[in-house]
Design a protein that fits this description.
It contains 8 helices and 10 strands. α1 crosses α7. A 6-stranded mixed beta sheet has the order 6-7-8-3-9-10, with helices on both faces. It has a 4-stranded antiparallel beta sheet with strand order 2-1-4-5, covered by helices on one side. It is α/β, with parallel strands linked by helices. The radius of gyration is 19 Å and the shape is globular. It binds adenosine-5'-triphosphate and magnesium ion (MG). Adenosine-5'-triphosphate binds next to β1, β2 and α2.
């Protein structure tokens, strides 16, 4: 019915497949031929405050495949950000193991982990985390200092990013001189500048109106197709979660497949009890 649209979708799928094959050629496939880029085994993260222990993440087991879009939903305080930070190597678990591309993060020194993150991982934080003394341009380029992958070239990629994110005339502004939405878009450019193989996004559309949220989501999905990167996104927005390959839910630190029978609109879970 829409041959042109179908053709474009088919082309995008082919590009994505090729990108995935290129960057996972060195990984052993699972029995069904997919490649695991992220795996957590029994990951625990507890915070000790006075004589209270808060278990933010309780024995999380997660496998993410190359190019997969996984959405994580859950109530406020259920541990979503904590889990994302652990997976992105920005925090260390109390116990359990986290592997990216088969490399255990807990076996890396802080320096090695920093470089590994720069090479393979991108993170869009819930609250931007831009460096206030640096301009938008400098903030976007910070991760390039931590990346030594030879195939990453910046010039064209950078131009396309700032055009797509409509930042070209804001590059020399400090974060305090930008609107909330512009700060968010700088944070997105920073997360994508090294062409990550896994992109973590913590409510990237949380502070945006519907039109801007759609635009940002469109950009993240297009980037995923182009780079073949996996996308692990925390979101409160069920219409966004519905577009993921798989939806997981955090409940009081426990990660589960989503099985909302009332809703029925979400993919990623084939029967069984919640
Ligand atoms: N640095 C910290 N010290 C102590 N407790 C913490 C710390 N960071 C998070 N927590 C606690 O861990 C739990 C999980 O927090 P987290 O930020 O991961 O939740 P979340 O699911 O991302 O919530 P939201 O949807 O509001 O962003 C909460 O009970 C929180 O109070
Ligand atoms: Mg959070």
């Amino acid at each position: 019915m829409y041959p042109r649209k179908d053709k474009a979708a088919e082309k995008a799928r082919r590009i994505m497949q090729q990108s995935i094959e290129d960057h996972t050629a060195d990984l052993a496939p699972t029995v069904d031929g997919r490649k695991v880029v992220l795996e957590t085994v029994d990951v625990m993260r507890q915070y000790h405050q006075y004589d209270e222990v808060v278990t933010a993440v309780h024995r999380a087991n997660l496998q993410v495949f190359a190019g997969e879009f996984v959405a994580i939903v859950g109530a406020s305080g259920s541990g979503k950000s904590t889990l994302l930070h652990l997976c992105a190597g920005l925090d260390r678990p109390n116990s359990g193991s986290i592997s990216v591309r088969g490399h255990k993060l807990e076996e890396m020194s802080e320096d090695d982990l920093g470089e590994f993150r720069g090479n393979f991982l991108g993170m869009i934080f819930q609250s931007h985390h831009l460096i206030p003394q640096l301009t938008a341009l400098e903030n976007i380029l910070v991760p390039t200092l931590m990346c030594d992958r030879e195939e990453v070239s910046y010039e064209q990629h950078f131009k396309r990013l700032i055009t797509a994110l409509d930042l070209a005339d804001r590059l020399h502004h400090l974060p305090s001189e930008l609107s909330g939405g512009q700060q968010q878009r700088v944070a997105i450019a920073r997360a994508l500048i090294n062409r990550p193989q896994i992109l973590f996004a913590d409510e990237p559309t949380g502070n945006l109106d519907r039109a801007n949220a759609e635009e940002v989501l469109g950009l993240l999905l297009a980037t995923r197709e182009e780079l073949g990167c996996a996308l692990v996104m925390v979101t409160h927005d069920l219409s966004i979660a519905a577009r993921a390959d798989r939806v997981l839910k955090m409940e009081a630190g426990r990660l589960r497949p989503w099985n909302n029978r009332m809703d029925g609109m979400l993919p990623g879970y084939e029967g069984g009890e919640e």
